[in-house]
Write a structure and sequence with these properties.
Blueprint lengths: L6 E9 L3 H22 L12 E4 L13 E3 L2 H6 L10 E4 L2 E7 L4 E3 L15 E3 L1 H14 L3 E3 L4 E7 L2 E7 L2 E3 L5 E6 L3 E9 L6 H9 L11 E10 L8 E7 L8 E9 L2 E9 L9 H9 L2 H7 L3 E11 L10 E2 L2 E3 L15 H21 L4 H4 L1 H8 L2
Parallel strand pairs: 1-2, 1-13, 2-8, 5-15, 13-20
Antiparallel strand pairs: 3-7, 4-7, 5-6, 9-10, 10-13, 11-12, 14-17, 14-18, 15-16, 16-17, 19-20
Helix pairs in contact: 1-3, 1-7, 7-9
């Protein structure tokens, strides 16, 4: 007998609680408020809009799946929240010292600055804990009346014909063999006119969407790297706003990847090692490589005596421009890492994720105004991406 499920109607559902979806939800709420203000003041004719917005996040709390430590270009943040500093955006240090090194087994040499592309200059940008930033954005969204659903996993895409119509969430209170505990709760159907998928790289529902609607036809396959990261507390950081990247050890000469080292605050560093998953040796262990990297004299000089506070791992979509799938279909849009929007050359993706969420919000807003969420109506999203930075 089919399980009866509760339905929760929304106008726009964002799947994933990272920077892309939260930026999109906040921007959409702002667009609706400005639209209604213009109508209320007589600056524009027409009916006011009432738009229900929802964001689901599989972690117990928003921010818990944000892997700490990143370099943030705040261009999208400034557009989304112009007074972000006054509102307490949890940015860490301002980057004042930036370098690239080539590591040998026990030594290193600095790559001259004139050999580093200007796009890779991080001075003046911010290091940031992605966990704290995401939590702060979620608090803003909640204050705007956006429906936040933490500890909620999407398990199936809902369709009406060929049009995406929302997401079914997972049952709770199950045993390991799918039996029901006394606290069993069936998942609910979050029905939406537009569903925005921003689950990160290789998201389950995003990939289902891509395969069912053939969104990768005519595009290159996506390729991935794996990043492993530790946040390390030390007695005292250098206080130089230090960021550096490395090549060489512990990678082999033909292997793609490297290290990121970020000073987060007065006593915390973030150390990250990244290696391509297309490397021909399937037994290469990224975590073991990170431990070897931490013993290198350059890294040891900065973290010796430190304590690992947190650690995590994340895949990174690195196919680039030609691997971005068609980012729309009837009733649905792809944003952030789910759409492969990482600029590998400059080693950044957070501000692209946020901007893509905001452009998805603008596309959804226009579609709601026209009461048309067809594939043709949502095709404007791809053009908006193409016209943006």
């Amino acid at each position: 007998m089919p399980q009866e499920r509760e339905s929760f109607p929304l106008d726009v559902l964002f799947v994933g609680g990272g920077p892309a979806c939260l930026a999109g939800a906040i921007h959409l709420s702002n667009l609706v408020s400005r639209h209604n203000d213009r109508i209320a003041t007589g600056a524009m004719k027409g009916p006011a809009l009432s738009v229900e917005i929802g964001v689901i996040e599989k972690a117990r709390e928003f921010g818990h799946h944000g892997i700490s430590g990143a370099v943030l270009n705040p261009v999208a943040l400034a557009e989304l929240v112009p007074d972000f500093l006054a509102k307490g955006a949890p940015l860490a240090g301002l980057i004042r010292k930036d370098a690239f090194y080539y590591l040998t087994t026990n030594g290193h040499f600095k790559i001259p600055e004139f050999m580093i592309p200007s796009a890779n200059d991080n001075k003046g940008l911010h290091t940031v804990s992605l966990q704290r930033l995401t939590k702060w954005m979620a608090e803003i969204a909640e204050g705007m009346g956006i429906n936040l659903f933490p500890a909620t996993t999407g398990v199936e895409i809902l369709h009406e014909g060929d049009q995406v119509a929302g997401v079914r969430t997972g049952d709770k209170g199950l045993t390991r063999d799918d039996g029901r505990k006394p606290n069993f709760e069936p998942g609910i159907d979050l029905q939406a006119k537009v569903t925005v998928f921003g689950e990160g790289p290789y998201g389950t529902l995003s990939e289902d969407l891509i395969h069912r609607h053939k969104l990768r036809n005519g595009r290159n396959p996506q390729i991935y790297s794996l990043g492993v990261k530790e946040v390390i507390k030390v007695p005292k950081a250098l206080g130089e706003g230090l960021v550096f990247h490395t090549m060489g050890f512990p990678l082999r000469p033909s292997q793609f990847g490297g290290c990121f080292f970020y000073e987060l605050d007065d006593d915390t560093y973030s150390v990250c090692f990244v290696a391509s998953l297309s490397w021909r040796d399937p037994m290469f262990d990224c975590h073991a490589a990170l431990q070897a990297l931490k013993k290198h004299p350059l890294i040891q000089s900065l973290i010796k005596g430190g304590e690992v506070l947190t650690y995590g791992a994340k895949t990174i979509p690195e196919g680039g421009y030609w691997s971005v799938p068609k980012p729309y279909t009837a009733g649905a849009l792809l944003v952030g890492d789910s759409a492969g929007l990482v600029n590998v050359k400059i080693l950044k993706g957070i501000h692209y994720a946020m901007k893509s969420g905001m452009l998805a919000a603008e596309t959804a807003f226009e579609a709601l105004l026209r009461d048309d969420v067809s594939e043709t109506a949502l095709a404007a999203y791809e053009q908006k991406l193409g016209d943006s930075y």
